[in-house]
């Protein structure tokens, strides 16, 4: 159920779960992307005459009141972006919350203090969820990025009040369905990042579903090592060689073409501007560090994109934070964005580092969809049900 299904809500209080777990520097919001993502839902509810009470977590205070993890610093930025006043309540339940909501005018907005200051939030304690539910008439979940958590404000509340997916949740689910649920085929995946160990479930799920899967970043070294290639001093999880071979075998059985690097960029240390060289796989020296994919690998990846109708991307291809080892990620991202703009490729990306990498390449707005979710995006790519989404289906 979405906001199209609420019926008249004028004068009612909507409890809206948002994700304001934003990067902060010196007590100020350093990146307001997640605030902007929440605006369409907030505005739509205000336009419909509802009072809007925002529920959110910040960081991991583990059920205690930690003043440095207050949501209060978010208020100024939210007011600026919304162009309307935003009240703040010092607690998300009890008298401070109830009074702040009571005093709101129609269309008014209040941000309630960090729900994780209460142990009942992460415990998904029904009594705590009930205290939250008592504050409102309907519940809107607009946080796909916290939907992998079965917490009171992401899951429990949906069982106590009429529950709806907000605008950003709806867009996110539609985009993800277009990428993996019901995609235009053939589908290409790109999975990068440093470690295979953190992405085992994801790789196993993807090889069973995709037509092609490109593996990049440090994790590709483990696959190269598993094929008997000497990766020198590069990051490599040697104890996972058998696991990498099993994934390659699963790919073969599922008819998923695996694209591993055919050449690499190496250096002796990770430092901006350090002397770097392209190497064939049989030319890697004992003290070489593989830090990026080579030009022939990128050319093959671009050809694979040309042959695909859908791309799902998680993780950079190299150490993109340290130029020149951003080259493969930037070139591949720009090619994906060009195809997405031309309408020939549905290009969906997500996961923490991926968004920074696409930002670095300057293409976030040109991709078909970029998810702001980190852990939730990975769990979804692993094929796991997300409690916050499942609770909206009942
Ligand atoms: C995120 O930043 O990915 C979400 O807000 C979830 O945060 P968490 O990992 O602390 O639950």
User: What small molecules does this complex bind?
Assistant: 3-phosphoglyceric acid
For the sheet with most strands, the description reads:
6 strands, parallel
Spans of at least 5 consecutive residues with low confidence: none
Provide the number of structural domains.
2
The CATH superfamily of the largest domain turns out to be Phosphoglycerate kinase, N-terminal domain
Radius of gyration: 23 Å
Distance between the termini: 9 Å
Shape: elongated
Briefly summarize what is shown.
The chain is of the alpha/beta class and 394 residues long.
Based on the model shown, name its key terms.
14 helices; 37% helix; 394 residues; Rossmann fold; six-stranded parallel sheet; 2 domains; binds 3-phosphoglyceric acid
Structure write-up:
The protein is an alpha/beta fold. The protein has 2 domains: 168 residues, Phosphoglycerate kinase, N-terminal domain (Rossmann fold), CATH 3.40.50; 199 residues, Rossmann fold, CATH 3.40.50. Helix content is 37%, strand content 17%. The chain has 14 helices and 17 strands. The strands form 4 sheets. The chain has a 6-stranded parallel beta sheet, with helices on both faces. Strands 11-10-9-15-16-17 form a 6-stranded parallel beta sheet, with helices on both faces. Strand 2 and strand 3 form a beta hairpin. It is elongated. It starts with 12 loop residues before the first strand and ends with a helix. 49% of the residues are buried. The mean pLDDT is 96. The site of 3-phosphoglyceric acid has 8 residues, from loops. Pathway: Carbohydrate degradation; glycolysis; pyruvate from D-glyceraldehyde 3-phosphate: step 2/5. Keywords: ATP-binding, Cytoplasm, Glycolysis, Kinase, Nucleotide-binding, Transferase.
